[in-house]
Task: inverse folding
């Protein structure tokens, strides 16, 4: 690949340091025009190509609350929230203040041969939300927390087997990848972790059949699956818990995306009376949108099986876990969630949006299903009945399964300044994962934008077909080159 010209004048214009002051904003401003060139040359060129192909290369320069601004100053409503990271929106003042306090306080951070007061406080606050658990292990991400939970489960039970569901997503590190329900993420990375097994989601007979071997250390399940926004029947999680207890398997709830108010309850499992997992894994929103942090909440006896002697006190850990910035971000996040009634707002605004989308489903034949809890919502598109729309649908699905969802996402972005995305590879479901601080005006924006775009897809199938042919051509070319 030929090196792209990157303006040297912009490099020298702002090195970041001058006259004893570090001006990061000036450095970013000076290099803004190099954004995509830098990523093409030094980072992921394929991702830059994707953004340019679908027209998402607008260059976001500012974020506040649920809004983003591009380099032209246009404002967007963010329904991705960084895959759920920005549950409180971007740059919440309370989170920023907490982080500034840590830096200004010159704390003795990561001494390693000491313990962190902030980590103890955050652990205490988390356990207050799940009083049947007693211990917390901190990590740097959701995937790293899943890895810890796998190790804890095997250590506590003495069993090798790890069970997960089809269409699941628990991360992309080797242990978590081994529990990934989408083969596209696994291709080329094998062999993966042995003794992992996949079963259908929301299928108690299949779960019991797998557990009957008494070889399974833990069953990992998302209370609501992120890939597709798949919601189980009301008796599934309590039934799964009972089966795990019957066969001596640990029941692990992956609340990385669903936790901390996303579904209108603090944990998604709180929607189901009596569900008390042996471990709960959280991350994403706990960061406050600034400093990555993940956590495993677990029963004491499991924790004690891992850290069972003084010479095993550091048998599992991570250099940067429990750092003061991430702990402060987590503490401030939990305080904001409580003080600003964020969970209640998620429940209220989610109920409004679900009702609105279900009304659209009644009026538009391309909308086949609407499902969700709180502000985790999936709008699924399916084959229409009318001949013209059906021909367009079939052409797009033949070229690339799930492509139709992109034909809704792109005009939402381009024409209505709403940022969203499909709920998984080859999935015709658009997932809404907005900040939990949405206002009624934001809901108006969402409802009018979706209504207009979906109506256009019905009224002007030729426009949809034209855009679809372009994307289908790129998809076919990519397959041929791959």
Result:
């Amino acid at each position: 690949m030929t090196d792209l010209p990157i303006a040297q004048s912009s490099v020298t214009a702002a090195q970041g340091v001058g006259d004893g002051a570090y001006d990061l904003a000036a450095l970013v401003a000076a290099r803004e025009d190099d954004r995509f060139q830098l990523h093409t040359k030094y980072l992921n060129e394929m991702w830059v190509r994707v953004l340019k192909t679908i027209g998402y290369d607008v260059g976001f320069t500012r974020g506040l609350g649920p809004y983003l601004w591009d380099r032209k100053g246009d404002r967007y409503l963010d329904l991705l929230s960084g895959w759920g990271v920005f549950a409180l929106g971007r740059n919440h003042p309370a989170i920023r203040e907490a982080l500034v306090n840590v830096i200004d306080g010159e704390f003795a951070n990561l001494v390693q041969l000491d313990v962190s007061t902030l980590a103890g406080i955050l652990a205490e606050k988390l356990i207050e939300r799940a009083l049947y658990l007693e211990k917390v292990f901190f990590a740097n991400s959701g995937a790293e927390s899943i890895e810890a939970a796998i190790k804890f489960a095997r250590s506590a039970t003495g069993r090798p087997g790890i069970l997960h569901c089809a269409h699941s997503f628990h991360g992309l590190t080797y242990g978590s990848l081994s529990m990934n329900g989408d083969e596209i993420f696994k291709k080329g990375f094998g062999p993966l972790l042995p003794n992992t097994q996949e079963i259908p989601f929301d299928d108690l007979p299949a779960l019991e059949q797998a557990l009957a071997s008494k070889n399974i250390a833990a069953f990992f399940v998302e209370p609501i699956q992120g890939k597709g926004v798949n919601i189980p029947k009301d008796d599934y999680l309590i039934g799964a818990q009972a089966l795990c207890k019957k066969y001596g398997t640990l029941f692990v709830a992956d609340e990385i995306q669903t936790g901390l108010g996303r579904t209108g309850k603090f944990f998604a499992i709180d929607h189901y009376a009596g569900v008390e997992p042996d471990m709960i894994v959280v991350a994403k929103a706990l960061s406050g949108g600034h400093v990555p942090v993940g956590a495993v909440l677990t029963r004491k006896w499991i924790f004690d099986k891992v850290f069972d002697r003084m010479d095993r006190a550091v048998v599992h850990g991570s250099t940067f876990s429990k750092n003061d910035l991430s702990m402060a971000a987590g503490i401030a996040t939990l305080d904001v969630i409580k003080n600003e009634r964020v969970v209640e707002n998620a429940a209220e605004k989610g109920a409004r949006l679900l009702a609105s989308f279900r009304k659209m489903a009644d009026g538009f034949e391309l909308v086949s299903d609407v499902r969700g809890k709180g502000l985790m919502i999936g709008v699924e598109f399916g084959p229409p009945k009318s001949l013209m729309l059906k021909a367009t649908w079939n052409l797009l699905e033949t070229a690339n399964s799930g492509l139709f969802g992109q034909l809704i996402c792109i005009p939402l972005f381009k024409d209505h300044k709403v940022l969203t995305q499909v709920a998984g590879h080859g999935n015709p479901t658009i997932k809404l994962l907005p900040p939990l601080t949405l206002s009624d005006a934001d809901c108006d924006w969402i409802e009018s934008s979706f209504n207009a775009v979906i109506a256009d897809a019905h009224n002007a199938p030729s426009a949809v077909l034209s855009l679809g042919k372009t994307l289908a051509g790129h998809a076919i070319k990519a397959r041929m080159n791959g």
